[in-house]
Amino acid sequence: MAAFIYTANSASAATTYGVAPYVDMSANSSGMLDSAITQTGLKSYTAAFVIGSGCTPIWGDSLDINSSTTNAKIAKAESEGAKTIISFGGAGGTELAQSCTDTASLTAAYQSVIDKYHVDHLDFDVEGAAIADPGSINRRYQAIKTLEANNAGLNVSVTIPVLQSGPDGNGTAFLQAARNNGARVDLVNIMTMDYGGAVADMGAAAISAARGTLTAAQGVWPSFGYASMGITPMIGQNDQAGEIFTTTDARNVVNFANSNGVGRLAFWSVGRDQPCPGGAGGGASPNCSSIAQNTLEFTSIFNGGTGGGGPTGGPTGGPSPTGPSPTGGSGGGCTAPAWSAATAYNGGAVVSFNGHQYTAKWWTQGEQPDLNLGDGKPWSDNGACGGGGPGGGGTPAPTGSPTGGPTPGPTGSAQYPAWQANHAYAAGDLVSYGGHDYRCVQPHTSMTGWEPPNVPALWQALN
Predict the structure, then answer these.
(1) DSSP label at 234?
(2) 387-408 pLDDT, tens per residue?
(3) What is the pTM of this model?
(4) CA-to-CA distance for 217 and 4, rounded, in angstroms?
(5) Cβ distance 320 to 343 under 8 Å?
(6) Per-residue pLDDT tens over the stretch 291-307
(7) Structural domain range at position 128
(8) What is the biggest distance separating any 2 CA atoms in the chain, rounded to whole angstroms?
(9) Which of 97, 110, 170 is nearest to 146 (CA)?
(10) Helix crossing, 202-218 with 247-260: angle to 10°?
(11) Residue 59 maps to which CATH number?
(12) Domain count along the chain
């Protein structure tokens, strides 16, 4: 059984492919791609989507991969200095692994695309019915394993839909299937869009989804970190009426990505990175964002992504340092370890910073406690060291450091059983842990390190 290996760690992979927005090759968006490359300095893009007609790979609904129109777009982009990632799948059409049921023929079809375009980066966008289809999932990963053996330096990303809490059960099972089939996945790219209802802050939702994905992926590959993750929102008006991803959201996501060393930033799509002729408003359009913006404004913002140049993220399981913080120290009278930008903290960890104690709500790294309080932020302020919580009174929070293991403390309201490691939980099960109650949202067998506050993709806090 293959372990997780993150191979996109060369300088070219970290920078050239660190920002790679999607381009709909079946739409009339070649002019926008040219402008993005020549006017904003875009270094790479993701060409979407190759789907299947039986075992024949085609672009969109009908264009053969020998289509001169599509190939001319790719050739021009590469002549201008942009690298191409070929993406298979997408929301429309039928992905090759579903239309081609013979694994050898499927492998040959994927290989023909590699040979045609001389690419070393492939993306597999698996959503809709395809992400819950075990037959095609296993065929795809078996083909990927062979492609990796036959193509030295091949980089593979998988792109999956997520909730605001991270992948659902199908998404997590899809990642596990890669390991079960011995296929290497270099990057897990999450579609932070179309959650299914109104979302007030799409930037915060994307960040929450990234945190939940980190936890879920670490359940498959314990060494998984943010350097092995991609974040892909849909800019402007999403397909869901109440979801609008703004330029402010974009800046917030880029800042989070750079602070945590996220491996890739992308968005759907370059062809939509412009205002609509009729102005803002209306539903989602394939050719514009439906919001007020400047042409290629999102591309310019996302170009600020460093592509994994920061810390890789991921809980380290070790104790946090007790020395002074490099950004201000803990202040006098504090007994909790000083917060450090270089340390990863699990949910429930308590730190001190500038004379206050803070408790982590979920996994976090590099996010300064006093600047990251409130809804959608990872820290809560316990109050001044030696005193009560915010507003005075109360009991000081327990001290300690993230260890990767269970956190000692009260077991909750006592109306529900205490959470246990190595226990099979079903969706809807109720437990108590650390003074709070939780509802299981995905069936799983618990493990040490998967305590409820650490894995929002598996547990919903009730109080």
Answers:
(1) B
(2) 433 333 333 333 333 333 333 3
(3) 0.68
(4) 10
(5) yes
(6) 999 999 999 999 999 88
(7) 11-302
(8) 72
(9) 110
(10) 30
(11) 3.20.20.80
(12) 3
